[in-house]
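Narrative of activities, Objective 1.

The group set out to show that a structural description can be obtained from nothing but a protein's sequence at a throughput compatible with the screening campaign. Below is one input-output pair from the validation batch, recorded exactly as produced.
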Amino acid sequence: MWLFKQLCSHPVWQGNLVPWPGDSSGRHLRVRAYKVMAENALRRVRLYDARASCFTYLANNGVPDHLLALWAGHTNARTTKRWYVKPNVEDLRPAAETWGGMASLPTPSREKL
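Output recorded for this entry:
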């Protein structure tokens, strides 16, 4: 989120939905993002990965799916959940603990036929 705020604070964004008209590749945004990362000694990450991390964080902290989709510019919340919200290790821990409990149950002995 901090990186997102830094990028959006750039003067070129003020009053513009598309900061660099005609640049559909997003090159200018990537250049700016990588510059902010370098200036702040942050690991360089792809913007797609940063976007997915933000949506995952927001989803895990209770932001409703329809708001995530709206922010992502999607008309369908399922698209946002499918492509951007990724579970991490902590999200999977309850399932792993349940599985571990099932796997540790004693095996019933089989009767001979």
